[in-house]
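Design job #97: recover the sequence.
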């Protein structure tokens, strides 16, 4: 995918700049023509000599040439590139990007670029988590950038946490996938329903039955679908996540019945649905109007079954409509998943397990298997939830 592609590699002032050298090497090895643009702070971390030797091109940093009156046109650079990758991206650079503060060649080029832009942030855990930085990342997403979220682990500061720039191999893989998608916005004209997150079923005004679903996979799927040109209707239970792609219409609900009511209305006009929500199977039969007081040693709460959204909509499926379900299984995983596939009339089911480290509900990674209607099974390795979403959307795209 990278052969002959013109890539701008933007490098900013982070200790992770050393990883950009490996990234550059990999891109060149894959056949890409790479133009490096480094910010003044980036040059404090790695030298232009290394970068120009590996890219075979002079490294750009200043607006103006030496003494001869020439200048580097950010507009030409922005139009030249097939893809622009900023790795590592500091909080400072992202802040400038979203505010249009053009005090270096990298930012002016970003503002002139017509190509897809990929941003791989790298910084300390607390800087990454700061609301200012999170707001800027949201804005970049809204402007259409592809964010490669940093990994969690040891940081240059000695602290542990989220902030390590993603590994160069994974960034190259993501760039290839983005270029493949850009080649044709394969899902344009498709309307797709996605459910995500948990549901909360009220017991009384202050208590509920819920589950540990984070919603991360459903949100990553919604974003990936939108990147491929689909119009996405994201119906989500209570989660701590944001999504800002202009083609994602988000609807927040609390209970399973509320989620069902919205999904029923939307599904008829959708080409596909991905049921990633962890919907509560039961809800209290009666919701107490007052907070339940502790009065007895035992308390019994009677539960009634909630609508099974996926199964109910599966019954109404018209020819050509595609549905995808999830099976989170703690035992007899494959057998249970196959039963769900048939019972809920899915085109394929995504099987995952909460039993193993790094898999399931709450973390940033997951290991899935996809079981198709024709009984074929595909097993995938442990990946970030974003990368898992890419695999799921690719499987859906093949059917659509
Ligand atoms: O039966 P189980 O809850 O394991 O089925 C999981 C699949 O069914 C998921 O795709 C989930 O989103 C969907 N589901 C649903 N409504 C329910 C229960 C599950 O849509 N009430």
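Job complete. Output follows.
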């Amino acid at each position: 995918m990278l052969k002959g592609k013109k890539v701008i590699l933007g490098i900013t002032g982070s200790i992770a700049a050393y990883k950009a050298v490996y990234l550059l090497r990999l891109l060149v090895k894959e056949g890409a023509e790479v133009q490096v643009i480094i910010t003044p702070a980036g040059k404090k971390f790695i030298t232009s000599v290394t970068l120009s030797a590996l890219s075979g091109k002079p490294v750009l940093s200043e607006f103006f040439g030496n003494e001869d009156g020439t200048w580097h046109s950010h507009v030409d650079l922005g139009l030249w590139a097939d893809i622009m990758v900023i790795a590592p991206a500091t909080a400072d650079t992202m802040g400038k990007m979203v505010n249009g503060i053009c005090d270096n060649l990298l930012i002016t080029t970003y503002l002139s670029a017509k190509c897809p832009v990929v941003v791989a942030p790298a910084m300390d855990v607390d800087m990454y988590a700061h609301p200012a930085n999170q707001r800027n990342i949201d804005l970049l997403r809204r402007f259409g950038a592809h964010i490669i979220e940093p990994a969690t682990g040891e940081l240059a500061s000695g602290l542990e946490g989220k902030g390590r720039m993603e590994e160069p191999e994974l960034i190259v893989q993501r760039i290839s996938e983005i270029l493949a998608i850009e080649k044709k916005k394969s899902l344009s004209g498709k309307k797709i329903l996605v459910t995500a997150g948990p549901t909360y079923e009220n017991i009384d005004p202050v208590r509920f039955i819920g589950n540990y679903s984070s919603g991360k996979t459903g949100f990553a799927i919604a974003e990936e679908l939108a990147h491929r040109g689909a119009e996405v209707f994201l119906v989500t239970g209570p989660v701590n996540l944001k999504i800002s792609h202009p083609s994602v219409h988000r609807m927040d609900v609390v209970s399973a019945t509320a989620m069902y009511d919205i999904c029923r209305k939307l599904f008829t006009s959708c080409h596909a649905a991905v049921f990633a929500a962890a919907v509560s199977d039961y809800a209290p039969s009666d919701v107490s109007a007052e907070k339940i007081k502790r009065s007895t040693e035992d308390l019994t709460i009677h539960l009634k079954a909630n609508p099974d959204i996926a199964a109910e909509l599966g019954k109404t499926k018209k020819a050509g409509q595609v549905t995808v379900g999830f099976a989170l299984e703690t035992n007899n995983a494959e057998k249970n998943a196959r039963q769900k596939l048939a019972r809920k009339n899915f085109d394929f089911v995504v099987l995952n397990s909460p039993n193993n480290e790094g898999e399931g509900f709450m973390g940033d990674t997951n290991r899935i298997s996809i079981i198709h209607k024709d009984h074929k099974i595909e097993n995938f390795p442990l990946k970030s939830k974003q990368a898992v979403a890419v695999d799921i959307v690719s499987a859906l795209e093949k059917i659509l």
